Amino acid sequence: MSLFEHLLEPWVFMWLSITHIPATVRALVEAKDYGTLFSPSGFREALFGTFWAAYGLNIKEANEERVVALLEGRVKEGRIYDNVVSTPVYGTVLEVGAGSGNWADVFAQFSNTSTAGGTNGLRKRKSPHGGITKIYGVEPNPISAKALKQRVKEVGLEDIYQVVPVGIEFVDDSSAWEGKIEPGSIDCIVGVLCMCSIPEPEKNMKMLYKLLKPGGHWFVYEHVKVTRGGPAIRFYQWFCNIFWSIFMGSCRICRDTGKGLRSAGVWQEIDIMQPPDQPSYQVLPHIYGTLKK
Ligand SMILES: C[S@@+](CC[C@H](N)C(=O)[O-])C[C@H]1O[C@@H](n2cnc3c(N)ncnc32)[C@H](O)[C@@H]1O
To answer: Residue 14 in contact with residue 247, Cβ under 8 Å?
Structure first.
């Protein structure tokens, strides 16, 4: 992408979201959900849910190679390798901000149940650690959580994938949903483009750290604050974020998620960085890689 295309990118996303305002209003009126319709924050979330249900899949497709390589353990220092160079995803997984289930088909490929994905002809991916045995998909947006449940059924994951329809801040609170995720019970956290949306990110990253078992892994693919670029591009990102926060739900583009993750707790290994092929003027840059507790 050229410099011009990078500068334009946030505005393209915002415009796509704006085009979903009529559909969001229609859906809320049909559901007689006037509380959400007339609440600025509720409406913003509903708009983002509608937008993501329509465009999330395109965004997933654009990022699929990176995320699959990450879960296969083929990423080191922001680069993709042909062979396994780190730990592939395994065991009990917590998917943060699962959205409408765009990654459910990928998880089905890593699951070790014989039925998951089988009816859809999805390929199976090998994991030396025995694959995924259980997934908690945490998603508070009711529009997205409904779509997520449907997607989990479509890919044949309903035996092992549990939708947790609350914010990440409530996963250990049994009064908020029908369950509780205990500290030290999760093998792998997978966060794809979601830390940008959670409230009180530093506090909640610390809480997520506590849910990981010692030796557990956090797989990270997040868009973050510009760090490589100079003051002009940082100012431009900050300026875009003012409008972004109006049209893109709770998502923010100026978060230093890398710093938050590093200081969430004590890590044995940290391998997260901006992919070297992303230019310094990228307005929506990423961090990519894993942390091992
Ligand atoms: C940009 S979307 C990404 C969705 C999904 N990971 C994907 O790649 O398709 C960010 C998601 O984070 C969710 N989110 C917002 N607040 C959250 C919270 N407190 N806890 C967990 N997820 C949250 C949003 O509802 C949204 O579905």
So the answer is: yes
Per-residue pLDDT of 281-290, as tens digits, reads 999 999 999 9
Q: Which of 45, 139, 169, 192 to mutate to test the pocket of ligand 1 (most atoms within 8 A of CB)?
A: 139
Atom of ligand 1 nearest to the CA of 169: 19
User: Nearest Cα to 137, choosing from 187, 182, 171, 176?
Assistant: 171
Output the CA 143–ligand 1 centroid distance in Å: 12
Q: Are 253 and 237 in contact (CB under 8 A)?
A: yes
pLDDT computed for residue 59 by the predictor: 92
Does the C-beta of 102 come closer than 6 Å to ligand 1? yes
- Quick: pLDDT tens for 6-16: 999 999 999 99
Amino acid identity, position 273:
M
Report residue 199 as tokens: 């409230």
Residues 6 or more apart from 280 whose CB is under 8 A from it?
A: 226, 228, 229, 230, 233
Nearest residue (by CA) to ligand 1, atom 18, is 167
Architecture per CATH, 3-292 = 3-Layer(aba) Sandwich (3.40)
* 3-class DSSP state of 137: strand
**Cα distance between residue 123 and residue 109, in whole Å:** 6
Q: Quote the CA–CA distance of 217 and 90 in Å, as a whole number.
A: 9
Q: Whose CA is nearest to atom 17 of ligand 1?
A: 198
Show me where the domains of the chain are located.
Answer: 3-292
CA distance 70 to 211: 21
Phi first, then psi: give them for residue 37, nearest 5 degrees: -60, -40
pLDDT surpasses 70 at 121? no
Backbone angles phi, psi at 171, to 5 degrees: -65, -25
Q: Is the Cβ atom of 149 under 6 angstroms away from ligand 1?
A: no
* CA dist list (Å): 136 to 64, 146, 161, 243: 20, 15, 6, 32
